[in-house]
Please model this.
Amino acid sequence: MKRLKGVLRIVIIDRIWRTSTICLLLVAIFRLPALAEPLTLTRCLDIAADKNPDIARAEAAKNEAELRLKKAEAGYYPELAVDVLSGYKSRVNTTEQDDITIPVSPDTPPLTIPGPSFDLGDKKQHDMALILRQPIYTGGRVTNGIRLSEAALATAESREELQKRDIRHNVINAFYQLAMAQAFEKIARASKKQIDSHLADAQNLLSQGMIIKSDLFPIKIRQLETDLNVVEAENAIARAKASLAAVMGLSPEAPIDILVDWEQHPPWPVPETIKSGQIKRAEQKIAGQQIKMAAAEEDIARGTRLPSIGLTASTHYGWPGFISNDPGWDTWWQAGVNITWPVFDMGRRRHEQMAAKEKIRRLDKAAQALDRQIELDRINCRLAYEETCRKRIINEEKVESARENYQTKSDNFRVGMASGTDYLDAHTELMTAETDLSIATVRARVAWADYLRAMGLDLKQSTGTCIKEGEAK
Model:
């Protein structure tokens, strides 16, 4: 019996251990982070359009402007209000009778009895009213208020467009910064592999007596430098990934991997259809709408100096009613036309109108300065793009020459026809050429995005196709 209990205890413990092990394995599997798909530039732009909080803030500002426009449009319509009053009046209407004079005798002056005085009404007042107010003429304040709100809405839409463009531009910069960091890491690892191979060849030549031991020291120093380059490249990749995730609206710790089509380059030379385009940028649209807003403000200020005419009608239910000697709750209604015309205000409204005129003048000059600045920006961005494209083409030829030189010096070193210094110089030239080519390739793509932004266009895909501002997601 004891033996059977021991066997059962062992079986139960074994089952518990197996079940616990399986549960722990399942938990570990499900807690593993999912492998993120490599993100193209287009996908990164889509994520930023959906996740970036700055874009959401700009959309909220546009929604706010839409609601303010609806509020301004409601100024044309009547207003219905409920008014309740309960209080006390210090005086009410009174009635007084004339004095009564009674003659007595010729020798006695007449007797004068003062006339009585009666209060008409109750000093306690209670009134419940339903009031209707309908503006008839406001000096254009309602119409101009709608103009102001429409211009404010258009400004908010342009600001949203500008915010999206800036976010897209930041995503493009961060994307290619990460691409350049990954290219640097690839170059650093390839360089380390070359130096490791070269060190092995040098040690082989040392064992054969073809070089001396001191020739190994520069190679080992270069090997340590390549190790350091790899570490720096890895850190640069980590920083670039965090920056790209943040500008996309994700957590900086989010795992990100990108996919770059290095074979597809932006168009070169610049197409004439793009170079000759004169599309208004979001900043110019905002400047124009601000001038319209200032013009509406001037008209509103002018309207405040004109009379306001409105219709007022109300129905009442209150105390003490209309029977003086028998106060009670009663109903009545009234209607009329109300006219309000400011006559004197120490020039406040006039100065407000003058200030609005000066604001229009200031904004008009600012818009002209902005046009000149944008024109200069377009020229500078085009020249920068042309320069980076030429640099990329030159660096491609430079890399080919550096690779041929490196391969020649490497082969010659193996047979003792070149020194270690010759090899290291060729290796340095190759690393520099490959690095310059990577920088030029990335800068050409960023410069292309900058040029499209300056021309009022937007990069749609990494293939170089473009669309107008406001049409992007």
Summary: The chain has a mean pLDDT of 84. The beta strands are 79-88, 93-96, 100-102, 111-113, 117-120, 124-137, 308-319, 330-340, 457-459, 466-468. The chain has nine helices and ten strands.
